[in-house]
Design brief:
Number of strands: 9
Distance between the termini: 16 Å
Length: 202
C-alpha cells in the first residue's frame, strides 16, 4: 500500500503484499510498591516479543486523469509472549518447583481499512495530493493484547512531487491524526489525539 504517496492504482488493478513487524518489550509495567518481601526488586509484567505478519492488499476503483480512488486493507496476525516477575518460589530453595507466570497469545489483530482519494496527480503536473481516511476496526482481542478494543479513525493527507528526468526524484510529506486510546486496556495519562508528520524521498 502506497500510504506515503498520492498515487493510486488504475481501475481494477490490484496489489498484494506480506509485511512482518517485530517488537521487543512493547509493554513493561512495574510497581515497586507491591514488591514481594525479599524479592529485591519490584513487581513487573512485560510483553517481551510480538511478531505481526500483515497481509496487505489494495484495488483501484477509478480511471480518471487526476481524481482517483483506491481501497486498501491490512489484515494482521499477531504472536506474542511475555511474563511477570518475580518468579514464585513457593517458599522453597530448589528452583525446580518455582512457578513462572507467563503469557503466550496468537490471533487476529485489528483490521485496518485504507481508502485513498487522490485529488491531484503528481505524474501529470509534478504535484500530487491525496487524503486517506483510514479506519481501524476492533477485530483483535484487547484482553489478549491483540487489539485496541475500539474503533479508531485516523485521517491523513499526502502531498508529493515528482521532479527531474521522467520524475525519478520524488518527495512526499505525509501528515495525519492519530486516534485516542479512550477505553483501551492500558491508558497513558494525558494521552488523547496525536498528530504526526513524515517526509520521504527517493
Amino acid at each position: 500500500l502506497t500510504r506515503t504517496s498520492s498515487q493510486v492504482l488504475w481501475k481494477f488493478d490490484f496489489s498484494l503484499g506480506l509485511v512482518t513487524a517485530w517488537g521487543a518489550r512493547v509493554l513493561d509495567l512495574k510497581n515497586p510498591a507491591i514488591a514481594p518481601p525479599g524479592s529485591g526488586g519490584s513487581s513487573e509484567f512485560a510483553i517481551r516479543n510480538i511478531v505481526t505478519p500483515s497481509l496487505q492488499g489494495a484495488v483501484g476503483l477509478t480511471n480518471f486523469a487526476h481524481f482517483g480512488v483506491e481501497l486498501g486493507l491490512v489484515i494482521p496476525m499477531s504472536i506474542l509472549s511475555g511474563r511477570s516477575y518475580p518468579t514464585e518460589t513457593n517458599g522453597t530453595t530448589p528452583a525446580n518447583d518455582d512457578t513462572d507466570y507467563s503469557i503466550t497469545e496468537q490471533g487476529l489483530g485489528d483490521i485496518i481499512v485504507y481508502p485513498k482519494v487522490r485529488l491531484m496527480n503528481a505524474a501529470r503536473n509534478s504535484l500530487g495530493l491525496a487524503v486517506i481516511p483510514s479506519m481501524v476496526r476492533p477485530t483483535g482481542d484487547k484482553h489478549k493484547f491483540l487489539g485496541e478494543g475500539q474503533f479508531i479513525f485516523q485521517p491523513s493527507a499526502v502531498i508529493d512531487g515528482e521532479f527531474g528526468y521522467l520524475g525519478r526524484c520524488r518527495v512526499a510529506i505525509h501528515a495525519g491524526r492519530g486516534g485516542g486510546r479512550k477505553g483501551a486496556w492500558v491508558t497513558d495519562a494525558g494521552r488523547g489525539t496525536t498528530w504526526r508528520a513524515s517526509c520521504d524521498g527517493a
